[in-house]
Amino acid sequence: MDRLDAMAIFVAVAEEGGFASAARKMKISPPVVTRAVSDLETLMGVRLLTRTTRTVRMTEVGARYADDCRRILADVAETEEAAAGSHGSVRGHLVITAPASFGRVHVTPIVMDYLRRYPETEVECRFVDRIVNLMEEGVDAAIRIGPLQDSSYQAIPVGNIRRVVCASPAYLEQWGTPLAPADLDRHVMISAAGITPSSDWRFVCPEQQITVRVRPRLTVATNDEAIVAALDGFGVTRVASYMVAQHLSTGRLVEVLREYDATVLPVHVMQHEGRLASRKVRAFLDMAIKELRGADAD
Questions:
Q1: What's the CA gap between 51 and 23, in Å, rounded?
Q2: What whole-number distance in Å separates Cα of residue 49 and Cα of residue 54?
Q3: What is the Cα–Cα distance from 138 to 16, expressed in whole angstroms?
Q4: Cα–Cα 20 to 30 A to 26, which of 77, 154, 205, 245?
């Protein structure tokens, strides 16, 4: 079997998590998939996958080899496009991810412009409030908010956003307005599980850093649910400024403790292929960087 074909099959197994699903994706028979992986392992003298009756998992060597295969295949594809005179074309299936609310408000318009500009593309948006592993989940590009935890990705800063503590006017009328972070201990708190990894709220002031241990009466799965509860007058929540900008401007929510919170969260556009990123990815990155740097995320 051709080495590049075998690499493509191995990458499919790595991304699909199994031989049968890889065979369906590649539109070939399962025995062909098995033989391709076996031939690669024999050629290199290493085990790329650990197989059981139920699962197929990559070894550490296999994971590194899969990354190398992706880069090689992308480089070959771009070289062939250039030789065929289609180097300037942008086509294919693009998968992007972003936090749910940010994606809906700021990224969706960019995607619409991208699709109009490049009619030979399709885009799959995964707007979720969790950290997505780009390589393991087959994602081409991501917009991340907050400190970066994985330095292996190429990340381009595009701006910053604030976090705000807010509640409805009705709630504040009933329970009073917190004037300092310590006052939150006497208030009804709303927290979004999985969004903030710690139950501590940190406030960064010019003079000091203050940490408050939050004991939420209501814990929800998403920021949107936390905002709904706050709008209903249930309690106090803390979210990114862009999520509640409209509610703050109309008075449905009121920001509190602003003078105690100078914290800003960085916003990055990320991808994992570096300089070998395909044209479809580079085209989206160019548009996203330009638009997000000009956006008012406050």
A1: 16
A2: 13
A3: 9
A4: 154
Longest dimension (CA), the chain: 74
Q: Specify the pLDDT at position 88.
A: 57
- C-alpha closest to that of 267 among 191, 156, 152: 156
**CATH architecture entry for 161-264:** 3-Layer(aba) Sandwich (3.40)
Q: Which two tokens stand for residue 259?
A: 């003078």
pTM: 0.59
Q: Which CATH code for domain 3-83?
A: 1.10.10.10
Alpha-helical regions (H) of the chain: 3-16, 19-26, 30-44, 60-83, 100-102, 108-117, 169-175, 223-231, 241-250, 279-294
Say if 3-83 and 161-264 have the same CATH topology: no
Provide the residue type at 285 as one letter: L
For residue 86, what pLDDT is reported? 46
Token duo for residue 130: 């969790």
Task: Provide block-wise average pLDDT over 10 residues at a time, the chain (298 residues).
Answer: 87 88 88 91 90 81 90 78 61 92 92 95 92 85 84 84 93 95 93 66 79 90 91 94 91 93 84 80 93 70
pLDDT at 53: 67
pLDDT of residue 151: 63
Q: Where in the chain are the domains?
A: 3-83, 92-159+265-294, 161-264
Of 229, 243, 15, 234, give the one whose Cα is nearest residue 129. Answer: 243
